[in-house]
Amino acid sequence: MSQEDYRNEGRREPPSHANHGGKRLAPSSRPSSRPSNLPASRSSSDPEHQTQPRPRKKRKRLGSWGILIYVVCVLGASVLLAGVSWMWANDILALNKAPLTAVVEIKEGDTVDQVADKLKDAGLIEYKFVFKLFCSFTHVSGQAGDDDAKITPGSYELNTDMDYRALISSMGSSSANRLTTTVTIPEGTTEAQIFEMLEKAGVATVEDLTETAANYDFKFSFLQGVLPLGDAKRLEGYLFPDTYEFYMGEDPVSVLNKMILRFDEIFTDEMRQTMTDKGMSVNDAVIIASMIEKETDGTDQGKISSVIYNRLNKPTSETAGYLNIDATILYVTGGTQVNTQADTPYNTYTHKRLPPTAISCPGVDALKAAVNPDSTNYYYYALGDDGVHHFFRSSSEHQSFLKSQELYKND
Description:
- By secondary structure, the protein is mainly alpha-helical.
- It is built from 14 helices and six strands.
- It has helices spanning 3-11, 64-93, 112-121, 128-137, 164-169, 191-200, 206-215, 252-266, 269-277, 282-295, 301-313, 326-333, 364-371, 395-404; strands spanning 101-106, 154-159, 180-184, 243-247, 380-383, 389-392.
- The longest helix has 30 residues, at 64-93.
């Protein structure tokens, strides 16, 4: 046996006799998985071949300056965030604001973005972005005037005591902060003059009122068949002259409907039945009343009405069915000089019967006179030097009177 074999033999462990009744166990016949040509592994107790543990990486510790910088950054970011949040909260809740009152006009179709611009320009809010974000969270959207919009067109008196929620609610249709104005419409005013008055009062523009009068189909039976949609004159005579309170910036449909509704109240069922019994319509009464309103001196509506009816109903008389009303021509031409040859269907010197529409918006006395005229044989009338009308049965009487009055000496 060689020395090497001897050393290996000495390293073999004696076979275990435990649990085998002192019998030797035959060596395993299973071939070893280790290749025979590899040297036996060395014992793990061999210090030269023991696996050395990897040294752990030491964590870099922040120095005192690093800790200080970190703390300062965290505190700075917290202070900045708190400051911004506080400024936003002040704006949302209307805290610490200087006293200010401003009038803000919201127009039809204004978006939340445009409303925010107007509030910012008026000095009522500081942060448009925050206001728009608040509107988004509270479901305030759409355009002013939409059916489901919370903001309504109009002029509103707002102040810096109002938080965001109060500002929005104050721009709603039922807001007590919505500005109103009182407009008095005199009897005999034309539709065009009424629209100018309303625009001057800040109620609505002439353009919007005219467009609405022409194209909106108001649900009143007496307007059916007056004039087709598209002609603004279809409401002439139906905007009842009275004193009204309107919202500034009010919806034109609401404005006109309010005045037409007042006419509907004044022109009673009895008056309508009387016109039906005459074989005439409500529109006929309105046209006649509008001429009376333009011609009367304020005391003689019934007599002027009788002249108009006599001329209409007796075409074989001296007037031959012509109304010969100066005011119908002036309605179209304007001014004070009457051109009896003017080429217009409103020329009642050249066109028989009633003009196409009313020529003014008559009051209650003129409407009553149009429905129930005085019973007379008058066909002519003229204003005298005394400032009142004088009535005549014949053309000769009429002409004699004109020659006697200084008022007509230069004609």
